[in-house]
Structures are given as structure tokens and as C-alpha cells.
Amino acid sequence: MAGQRTALTAHNLSVPGYLSLPTAPGPGVIVLQEWWGLVPHIESVADRLAEAGYTAFAPDLYQGQSTTSPDEAGKLMMALNIAQTAEQLRAVVQALREHPSTQGHPKVGIIGFCMGGQLALYAACENPDIGACVDFYGIHPNVKPNFANLSAPVLGIFAEKDAFVTPEAVAALRQELDRYGKTYDFETYPGTDHAFFNDTRPEVYHPDAAYDAWDRVLRFFKAHLP
């Protein structure tokens, strides 16, 4: 099933993005982009969540900009206004909770990839109405989640050969979550590179790991977004 470009509004703030609806009301899930922008791959993740019964919304954090150039993607990521993004995500959480397609589901899930993975952690620490957080190899040097405030369980998906989110970085994240007594489950896939879930990038895509990771995501959301 295919969604559409639209906007969600709450707290007097309208946030553009891509909305994909399930056939029957289901919990809301926010899908956060990689540093490329709101590209077709991220829209396809929202569609897959809708097929699984979730009301999925991918906010356009770059306000219409996207790229296939790593240099340009890096510039867009570093230019992102984190405070403004936090306000947008807060509005999206509220808008999804109030959406007709999420009736009876007070908690929202969040999933992010690369830059979006770190933002997912950040948003989960800032919004108690987020009930489940999935971080796919999250990284952003200017985003520092306040893990003391985290109430949602975390599913962390990582790549063994990731040059950006190294095993040392994963260990440091695990140590922070342990420090505050948080609930999490991490999985590192052997032989995989950063962005192994992105099926539009054949140079890094790993179908077996991506399939297993998606199965974990669906089981995680089912357990924590009743």
C-alpha cells in the first residue's frame, strides 16, 4: 500500500512528510530519515509499517531537500536545527496520537536510520508518549540524548563493519543505557556495513540481515505498542 505526501499539525506547528495508513486503525510510528533526506527508501519503510498495521509518518526534516551526494548529505545533516527538529517531532507525536487512524493507541513508536537513528533516541528521551524506539546504526555528532529521561525500551540494530557507528560506539551506548537502568536489546549483524538495511544501495545492502532486522522490528513494536 502506498502513502502520500501531506502534513501533520499539532502545537500550532505543521510538519510536512509522508503518511501511510493501515487498513484498520493501528498504533502510530514515526519514521526518521537517513542523512539523504526523505527519499523513496524511507517512504517504503513507512509503507511496510502500514502493511503491518501501523499508522506511519515520515517527517521531512530537510523541508523538501534531498540528495544522493555524500558531501551534500553531510552538509544537510550538520545544518539541521536540532532544537527546531525537536519541536517538530514533539508535534508529530501529538498529531499521531490524535489521528483517527490511531484510535485507542496512546503510545507512539519511533524508528530511525543513520542520522534518524540518533534522532529517534533523542526524541524518545524528550517525549514520554513514545512507547518504543528503534535505532538503526544511529549517528549525529550534535545530537546528545538525555538518557536519564528515557522511558521507552530501545531496539538497537548495528553493523559489524560500520565505520561510522563502530563497536566502541555501540559499547559506549550500551554503557550509557546500563548507567541509567534502561531497557534495551542490541543486535549487531556480522559481515555487514553501515546502512545494510537500505535496499536502494546495492554496495552495502545485505538482504539476509535486513530481513532478520525487519522481523525483529515488527516483533518489538508488537510487544511494546499493544
Automatic annotation (TrEMBL):
Residues 16-224 form the Dienelactone hydrolase domain. Pfam families: DLH. Its EC number is 3.1.1.45. InterPro entries: AB_hydrolase_fold, Dienelactn_hydro, Dienelactone_hydrolase-like. One of its GO terms (molecular function) is carboxymethylenebutenolidase activity. Gene3D superfamilies: alpha/beta hydrolase. The keyword Hydrolase applies. It comes from the Bacteria. Keywords: Hydrolase. PANTHER family: ALPHA_BETA-HYDROLASES SUPERFAMILY PROTEIN, CARBOXYMETHYLENEBUTENOLIDASE-RELATED. This is Dienelactone hydrolase-like enzyme. It comes from Chloracidobacterium thermophilum (strain B).
